[in-house]
Amino acid sequence: MATNAKTVHRLKVTLRQVRPPVWRRIEVPSDMRLSELAGVLEAAMGWMGGHLHAFDADGVLYEIPDEEGFGRRTTRDERKAQLGQALRDVRARMRWDYDFGDGWEHDVVVEAIEPRAGDVRYPRCLAGRRACPPDDCGGPWGYNELLAALADPLHVEHQSLTVWAPSGFDPEAFDVEVATEMMRSARPLQGW
Of 55, 99, 121, 146, which sits 20 to 30 A from 78 (CA to CA)? Predict the structure, then answer.
């Protein structure tokens, strides 16, 4: 992820339709390609990766073009678009969709565009709240059901979902150092 960016974008990424909110504040080089940003966002949020995704910035859809077409509107190739081109100004925003089957939607908002600090390694996570839902749990509705079952030992699905959920899953947990480390790792995670 070599970059010559003179600036960095500070982004706040918030998962839609999940309460209490799951969010991250990250910094990434402004010249990062959206295809690379997708992996960084997966890692920052806690997604495993490997699912389809797309960005929507001001009605422009960025994704890896679908050779088959499948009736989706015209897209721009995310491998050729830089973050600083898609989100040019502070307060600019886009939607990032992850895993079309589960329908996870995220708001990505530019909080600042600042000069790159020479002694800082990017990308990095600055802050966040709550654990990301487990991959393939059924979107916001399925996640709410998972939380209800895990919290109630008498819930009809408590036993099966406790076994299904990641070992030690704590919806309140978040570690900024682990998020930063994951943001710098290869995506999707190996073995996924």
Answer: 121
DSSP string, 94-142: EEEEE-TTTTEEEEEEEEEEEEPPTT--SSEEEEEESPPPPTTS-HHHH
Q: Is residue 41 part of a domain?
A: yes
Q: How far is CA 126 from the centre of its chain?
A: 15
The structural domain count of the chain equals 1
pLDDT tens-place string over residues 151-178 = 999 999 999 888 888 888 999 999 999 9
The reply to whether 148 falls in a domain is no
Give pTM, 2 decimals.
Answer: 0.91
Task: Give the H or E element holding residue 8.
Answer: strand 7-15
**Which tokens sit at 112?**
């600042």
| CA 85 to chain centroid | 19
Residue ranges making up the domain that contains 117 = 8-131+175-183
**149 inside domain:** no
Q: What's the CATH number where 59 sits?
A: 3.10.290.30
- Can you tell me the distance from the alpha carbon of 89 to that of 87, in angstroms, rounded to the nearest whole number? 6
